[in-house]
Amino acid sequence: MDLKMAEAYTPTTPEGGSTDEYRCQVIAPGLTKTAFVTGTQFAPENVAIAHHAIVYAVPPDRAALVRKQDAKTPGLGWQCFGGTGVPGADVEGDDQGVTWVDTWAPGATETLLDQDIGFKLGAAVTRPPSMPADKLAVRYKATIQLDAIDEWL
């Protein structure tokens, strides 16, 4: 299944003087039944400006939390660093609930999980490519390709 960003995004200089922007975006898979992610591949449209990206799997019972964060933040997605920054739907600490599935950097290829591993999916959150300061004005879009099964044997 190919999950595409809804629209292109133009990074801005982040608050606090950082030179890279870290932003989380919800990319909803539009599932009508439970699926288990068994592989991923992140595909930016313009690899020349991308530094890295992270894909998180959000289980169905946590999807509303990330959607609420997205809805209350103006523009596409929200600023995040080191995780989603969403209480109850983050990847570490007391706010766990989301699984770090994959990391992408230029030159990376598809990630396939071991035979008996899969992540239950309700929504996908991606931290799209962080952008070095000299690339902040460039718009980008990306696709996340997910290998998934709908039944865990």
What do these coordinates show?
- It is built from one helix and ten strands.
- The protein is mainly beta and 153 residues long.
- It has one domain: Sandwich (Jelly Rolls).
- The strands form two sheets. Strands 1, 3, 7, 8 and 10 form a five-stranded antiparallel β-sheet that branches. It has a five-stranded antiparallel β-sheet with strand order 5-2-9-4-6, with helices on one face.
- Residues 129-139 have low confidence and may be disordered.
Structural class of the secondary elements?
mainly beta
Give a count of the beta strands, DSSP E runs of length 2 or more. 10
Q: Please give the CATH class.
A: Mainly Beta
Principal-axis shape equals: globular
- Low-confidence segments, ≥5 residues, pLDDT <50? 129-139
Tally of helical runs? 1
String of helices and strands? EEEEHEEEEEE
Tell me the Rg in angstroms. 15 Å
> Residue share in helices?
under 10%
At the fold tier of CATH, the topology name is Jelly Rolls
Which percent band covers the strand fraction?
25-35%
Instruction: Give the oligomeric state of the chains in this entry, treating copies of one chain as homo and distinct chains as hetero.
Output: single chain
The CATH architecture name reads Sandwich
What value does the average pLDDT take?
75
Major sheet description? 5 strands, antiparallel
Number of domains: 1
Q: Tell me the distance between the termini.
A: 20 Å
Structural topology:
Layout: E1 2-4, E2 23-27, E3 35-44, E4 53-58, H1 63-72, E5 78-79, E6 99-104, E7 111-112, E8 119-121, E9 123-127, E10 142-149
Antiparallel strand pairs: 1-10, 2-5, 2-9, 3-7, 3-8, 3-10, 4-6, 4-9
